[in-house]
Amino acid sequence: MLDPRPLVDIATAIGLEAGALVQRMRASAVVSFDTKSTSTDVVTEADRASEQLVRTRLSESRPGEPVLGEEEGGTVVEGLTWVVDPIDGTVNYLYGIPWYSVSIAAQLDGESIAGAVVEPATGRVWTAARGHGAFLDGQPLRVSATTDLSLSLLGYGFAYRPERRRRQADAWAGMATRVRDMRRAGAASLDLCSVAAGRLDAYAEHGLGRWDWAAGGLIAAEAGAVVRLPGSSPELGEDATFAAAPGIAEAMHGALVECGFGQV
After folding, report:
1. Which positions ≥6 away from 92 have C-beta within 8 Å?
2. Taking Cα atoms as reference points, which of 149, 205, 194, 200 lies closest to residue 172?
3. How many C-beta atoms surround the C-beta of residue 85 within 10 A?
4. Does the pLDDT value for residue 41 go beyond 60?
5. What is d(CA 263, CA 173) in angstroms, rounded to the nearest whole number?
6. Which end of the chain lies in a sparser environment, N or C, as judged by fewer CB atoms within 10 Å?
7. Structure confidence at residue 33 (pLDDT)
8. Distance (Å, whole) CA 215 – CA 127
9. CA-CA distance, 257 to 139, in Å (whole number)?
10. Parallel, antiparallel, or unpaired: how do β-strands 240-244 and 139-140 relate?
11. Which residues of 39-57 are buried (b: 16+ CB within 10 A; e: fewer)?
12. How far apart are CA 246 and CA 58, in angstroms?
């Protein structure tokens, strides 16, 4: 049986190095940048440099193991695959908002077994190994104990395409009357980590890539959250990601369905 804990150590060390690179590059990286799926979906030279560094370091420490990255692509295969988001929250990075991360996960047969989410701006490190719990800077994490949906804080996100954002806005407007409040922070990996820490009671978003949730989803699950990944809950939409404290998970799921979350 593969022990995932050494993989966490590798992900953490490489994530910290990539995070330091991202910080050094910010002043120059935000001067010139490209776009991807839409004019609002940005990619900087720091994204590309960070992913290249991660790929190089993984090839040195884990030679021959495939890598799936947001910028350079790849595929998930049987056995071990590394899943990399070189900067999650690139728009925040572009604007100088210190809520972005380097996210690295190891997946075995498509399921996350180890992960690290590094915050370059603060130096905080979120980690988890399957069956061994979740941690922030070495301190154990646990989801919130809330049981009342109306007193819960919900994290959410928007797609890049305007037509889908309109439908999402209608769903979120419906949810706004059912929860204490809502937060749109702009980095899925850190939103999932926030559920793990009880800073959010729940989080839901459509359209995430595997690199967005591979590490953060494991961290949330290991902290006790109910986590549903894309493809597992068609009633929420085939590309929906969902994480919630167990005391409100069923109510949150039902409210999202009632508000049309599965039709956006």
Report:
1. 98, 99, 100, 186, 187
2. 205
3. 34
4. no
5. 14
6. N
7. 59
8. 8
9. 35
10. unpaired
11. eeebbbebbbbbbbbbbeb
12. 35
Instruction: Give the three-class secondary structure for 242.
Output: strand
The label of the residue with tokens 């926030």 reads: 194
Beta bridge mates, 215: none
Beta strand pairing status for 134-136 and 139-140?
A: antiparallel
Q: Under a CB-based contact definition with an 8 Å cutoff, are residues 158 and 186 in contact?
A: no
pLDDT at 143: 98
Does residue 36 carry a pLDDT above 60? no
Token pair of 18, please? Answer: 């990539």
Residue range 95-106: mean pLDDT, rounded:
96
Can you give the C-alpha Rg of the chain in angstroms? 17
pLDDT of residue 147: 98
Beta bridge partners of 69: 73, 84
pTM for this prediction: 0.95
H/E stretch holding 240 reads: strand 240-244
Please state, in angstroms and rounded to a whole number, the distance separating the CA atoms of residues 13 and 25.
Answer: 19
Whole-Å CA distances, 60 to 133, 200, 227:
27, 37, 33
Residue 148 neighbours by CB distance under 10 Å: 12
pLDDT in tens, 170-197: 999 999 999 999 999 999 999 999 999 9
Alpha helices in the chain (DSSP H): 5-29, 45-61, 90-95, 162-176, 188-197, 210-222, 249-258
Confidence of residue 73 (pLDDT cuts 50, 70, 90): confident
